[in-house]
Specification:
By secondary structure, the chain is of the alpha/beta class. It has two domains: 217 residues, Endonuclease Chain A (Endonuclease, Chain A), CATH 3.30.870; 241 residues, Endonuclease Chain A (Endonuclease, Chain A, 2-Layer Sandwich), CATH 3.30.870.10. It has 16 helices and 22 strands. The strands form three sheets. The protein has an 18-stranded mixed beta sheet that branches. A two-stranded parallel sheet has the order 10-17.
Length: 495
């Protein structure tokens, strides 16, 4: 943890904060506004009603989520349409994701747009930067957005080297108020997205930053090996380096008993998830990138073929959601509506879990009506405060019938949800107020049981590598742990 380098900035930010609030999300109200048929667009524009119905008509039993109805609900709440004709590949951990991203960058012909929270000056960061410089020298336009707080510990010379190589750089929301752009200086508002777009045709999104933190894979067993091959990380708070949450002396160790083992993020691999997308949906990602660039009052983007008519390349129907501070809470609304409408299962893997009241109600309410609600949460974390703040919610969750598991032998950084095996999301968003209120985030929602099955397999692997926390065991935890939870809960809004 590198809290000492930026603690002063955190304290300064806290003094400027005014507590914002999340909107009420009511499924009944959304249903009243929803159309009978959701809008689905393709490379050629909006699909006719009959084509849309054929695309989404697959029948689900009454015990599972109605995808057509859910899509209409989400559209009413977010105003964002579904996009057809995509190929989506699930990527596990840093090594596999970095391999695929670098392969895509090496094949770039026209432009590369890259947006990240952390971009470290370490072995992986230097390798990534040199590849970007090489592509720029080959005539490919390279634009990079990095968060100024997520990279606070990185020497400016690292970015100057890329700039000298021709890469166009934008530091999101500079820490120095004299350099404020766009909507003014708001230290607490951060760009937490991890998004790569290559030639407007291939996109990557998820939880993985550019840091040696991700050079080791989590110890998957079964079909997902530790090499990160299929078949086989910082949070969003103010910080930098391999961890990106507000650190503390509370500790985060493994287990719940008095003799718990203290393990740091440097001792183990990181468990994370990304997706690789091809098809028309990449254009929606492109718009999100350009929107941030424009809102930051940056120089004009250099000429490139940013917006193309991308033909369909697969059969996946997706919704690309980008949220930002003082925005419309698109990701929050979509997640809550899916939880509220779940009929069979809610399976969540989440690195930083500090839920608000509505999320708690959605999870406990689902469990009480018979939905299989299971959470995979960290047993070791790069933030003691967030770790214990999340544990402060275990009691009511367990009492409602929610099953909680803590991942062993890895630092959990993934942010994924799969509901009823047919509604899935992968992205940068944690289940906490910070993600929904103060960060720019990006999530991809994938509709359908084929991708849902892949997500369920990944979730089962996480369960296999986790330890269940039972209510009986939880009630026996030591007083010292209870005190840590109480202290962390006091600050949960700012985490």
């Amino acid at each position: 943890m590198k809290a000492s380098r930026w603690l002063a900035f955190i304290l300064a930010g806290w003094t400027l904060l005014a507590c914002a609030s999340l909107p009420e999300v009511d499924a009944d109200r959304a249903k009243a506004r929803a159309s009978a048929m959701p809008e689905v667009v393709s490379a050629k524009g909006k699909l006719p009603r009959q084509t849309t119905e054929q695309l989404l008509k697959k029948r689900w039993t009454k015990s599972t989520l109605d995808l057509k109805a859910q899509a209409a609900l989400e559209e009413a709440a977010t105003g964002v349409p579904l996009i057809a004709g995509n190929k989506v590949q699930l990527l596990f951990d840093g090594p596999q994701t970095m391999t695929e991203m670098m392969k895509a960058i090496a094949a770039a012909k026209d432009h590369i747009n890259f947006e990240t929270y952390i971009f470290d000056q370490d072995e992986l960061g230097k390798k990534f930067a040199e590849l970007l410089i090489q592509k720029q020298r080959e005539g490919v336009v390279v634009n990079v957005i990095y968060d100024s707080v997520g990279t606070i510990g990185v020497p400016q010379e690292f970015f100057d080297h890329m700039k000298a190589g021709g890469v166009k750089l934008l530091a999101f929301n500079p820490i120095n108020p004299a350099k404020a752009r766009g909507n003014g200086w708001k230290l607490n508002n951060r760009d937490h997205r991890k998004m790569l777009i290559v030639d407007g045709k291939v996109g990557f999104a998820g939880g993985i930053n550019i840091s040696d933190t991700y050079s080791k894979s989590s110890p998957f067993r079964g079909g997902l090996g530790g090499n990160g091959k299929p078949g086989g990380s910082g949070g969003s708070g103010i910080g930098s380096g391999s961890g990106s949450r507000i650190g503390s002396g509370l500790g985060s160790g493994v287990g719940t008993g008095a003799g718990q083992q203290q393990v740091t993020e440097d001792d183990v691999g990181w468990r994370d998830t990304h997706v690789r997308i091809e098809g028309p949906a990449v254009q929606a990602m492109q718009w999100l990138f350009v929107q941030v660039w424009i809102e930051q009052d940056a120089d004009d983007l250099r000429d490139a073929k940013y917006f193309l008519q991308v033909p369909p390349v697969g059969d996946k129907v997706v919704r690309v959601l980008g949220s930002r501070p003082e925005g419309h809470f698109e990701i929050y609304k979509a997640m809550l509506l899916a939880m509220q409408e779940a009929k069979k299962s809610i399976h969540i893997t989440c690195a930083y879990f500090v839920p608000d009241a509505q999320t708690m109600e959605a999870l406990t309410g689902a469990a009480r009506r018979g939905v299989d609600v299971q959470l995979v949460l960290p047993s070791v974390s790069d933030s003691g405060l967030v770790f214990h703040a999340g544990r402060a919610f275990y009691q009511p969750l367990l009492e409602a019938g929610v099953k909680i598991y803590e991942l062993k032998l890895s630092v959990l950084h993934a942010k994924t949800v799969v509901i009823d095996g047919v509604w899935s999301t992968v992205g940068s968003t944690n289940l906490d107020r910070r993600s929904f209120l103060h960060n720019s985030e990006m999530n991809v929602i994938v509709m359908g049981d084929v991708f849902g099955l892949e997500m369920e397999k990944a979730f089962k692997e996480d369960l296999h590598n986790s330890r269940e926390i039972t209510l009986v065991e939880w009630n026996k935890r030591p007083l010292s742990n209870r005190l840590k939870e109480w202290l962390a809960r006091v600050w949960d809004y700012w985490l």
